[in-house]
Amino acid sequence: MSRFVAALLMAITLAVATPRAQSGTVRVFASNGFRAVFEELVPACERTIGQSVAAQFGTSTSLTQRVSGGEAFDVAIMTTEAMEDLGKAGTVSARTPLGRSGIGIGSRAGAKKPDIATADSLKKAFLAAKSITYAGDGASRPHIERMMTTLGIADVMTKKTQLEQGSVRAAARVEHGEAELLITLVSEILPAPGVALVGPLPSQFQNYVSFAAAAAVKSASPAAGKSLISCLSGPSVAGMLKAKGMERQ
User: What average pLDDT does the chain have?
Assistant: First the structure.
């Protein structure tokens, strides 16, 4: 009888402990710029690390604010500038480069695409547009506003600009016909529903935003977090990056 009771207790212990070991979830804060790649790769990564992954997306600015506010996470995927700041603050460990994306123009799916191949044609496209939109808290904003100044149309375009919180909401404005042109990273335009990529900015106005990943210093799942980062940054990911409007740094 004592052996039976001991065996029963052992079985109960294993039954309880095993789900706990398998139920851990890797919590990720990920920038919108890397979202399309992340969502495509995460199912395979979950199988690789043996744990589920729960991600919350936003601009690097908004995610950094959440980290500064004390929200718990295991892995952060943000712009390299934001990750450097988190590293200096002692919030994340060593950063792993993931990829970069250039800035592009998007229009409502089915609408006639303007010519943006040269500085002159791009200027005409902006002046002809009834309205434009981009993320007021996005990493591309300084470069967009610098471009408008260089083109000599900053004052005119300010009146036509609809700033939004994040590229997802900006893209939705174009999808619903509330704004004519979207300016954001190509990697954010391609997956946006109801929005078509017009093309990248001309080379003289182009700027690339790079992304990196790092595990949280206070992560509850440090090993799984590092394994996830390895999965997202492996050599086999290059083709996926290209398909989603990104490239290796």
Answer: 91
SS3 state at 217: coil
Q: Is 25 helix (H, G, I), strand (E, B) or coil?
A: strand
Annotation: CATH topology of 102-208 = D-Maltodextrin-Binding Protein; domain 2 (3.40.190)
Ranges of each domain in the chain:
2-100+209-243, 102-208
Q: What's the average model confidence in pLDDT over 172-177?
A: 98
Architecture of the 2-100+209-243 domain:
3-Layer(aba) Sandwich (3.40)
Q: How far apart are CA 183 and CA 107, in angstroms?
A: 9
Query: What's the pLDDT score for residue 22?
Result: 38
- 148 by Cβ neighbours in 10 Å (0-12 / 13-18 / 19+) ranks as buried
What is the model's pTM?
0.85
At 109, list the tokens.
């799916």
Which residues does residue 20 pair with via DSSP β-bridges, in sequence order?
none
